[in-house]
Amino acid sequence: MGSYCKIFKSKVVPFGRSSIYRVFTNLFYTGTFVWDGKEYKGNHNPMITLEEYDRVQVLLGKYGKPRPSKHVHAYTGEITCGECGCMHTAVTKNKLILSTGEYKSFTYYYCTRKKKSIQCSQKKTLTESALEKQILKFVEGCEIHPQFLTWALDYLKERNVVEIQDSLEVKKSNQKLCDDTQRELDNLTKMLYKELIDEQGFIKERDILRAKLAKSKDQLAESEDREEKWLELTEKTFKFAAYAKKHFVNPESPPEHKKAILLGLGWNHTITDQILTISKHKWLEPIESNYFQLKSDLERLELEETLDTTGRSERTDAIRLDWCAAVETIRTSYLSQGSL
User: Fold this and answer.
1) Phi, psi at residue 270, to the nearest 5°?
2) If 286 and its partner were Cys, which of 44, 59, 234, 326 is the partner (CB 3.0–4.6 Å)?
């Protein structure tokens, strides 16, 4: 006890046992203070971390619940119950591991069952780890080999050159339509000034031409916007397929990244009987229907030892061409729908 001292009336005296106990159970030293029963972050520098504080409480025999902490749940707001349609929410509980004296957090997802008009039977919780295993399975279902990513990006860049050339004529036609319509509007105004048309007729024709001009300008802007964005978005699609699993299993990936990956897989995420179901995006269909067989063909080709260079090159080109056909399906799907 002699090593723990305090100054009292200009004298150094040892800390009492109760004083030491108060020091080690005071949140102030973590950079936090308590006011009116609530915890707030202070402006002072912490001497210890909150984790170290919790550890000390265990050593002191304080086995009560740890301090409440704020948890970010990655998948709330995106998953509904497959039975009643209510949102799934999540709760994180801290449990003391007696063997190590440490607290560990466990997150559970469950149906809120807020619709009183529906007797929902979905009462079981689903742990976040079990949920993420199911999400990972979906991610693996759209993962592509680096070679297929390279082929896809090369094809898209080549196709972009052709697309730009083709779109020039469309843009010229839309621009000409805009210019012609604007001239008609100008001439209509001149006719009004020269009293070649009455005001009622002028207003009627002006409104028709204005609507026509607005539509032409929208078409022109749409063609320019599509030209600028489709390559970027389709490239992101294939890069997502190639790297989603790597980012998802990375322990340092923040919750918002994992949520983005879930949304990238599809829409209408539901849980029924602890099973996650996802309505997959349309762009996944060509990958599912073509990719895995082509990947298997490429892997067998890589193991083939009897082929000469020419034969191997021809078969590789055949696989690449079939894959590029799938890539084209995704590209045209974007162009027709405007989104992936």
Assistant:
1) -130, 155
2) 326
Q: Where are the domains of the chain?
A: 5-59, 70-124+250-281, 146-249+282-337
Residue 61 above 70 pLDDT? no
Query: CA 244, 248, 249: angle at the middle one, nearest 5?
Result: 125
In tens, the pLDDT along 274-323 reads 999 999 887 777 777 788 899 999 999 988 888 898 999 999 999 999 99
DSSP characters over 20-55: HHHHHT-GGGGTEEEETTEEEE-SSPPSS-HHHHHH
Per-residue tokens: 122: 């979905």
State in words which class domain 5-59 has.
alpha beta
Q: Are 265 and 281 in contact (CB under 8 A)?
A: yes
What is the band of 337 on the pLDDT scale with cuts at 50, 70, 90?
low
The mean pLDDT value of the chain amounts to: 81
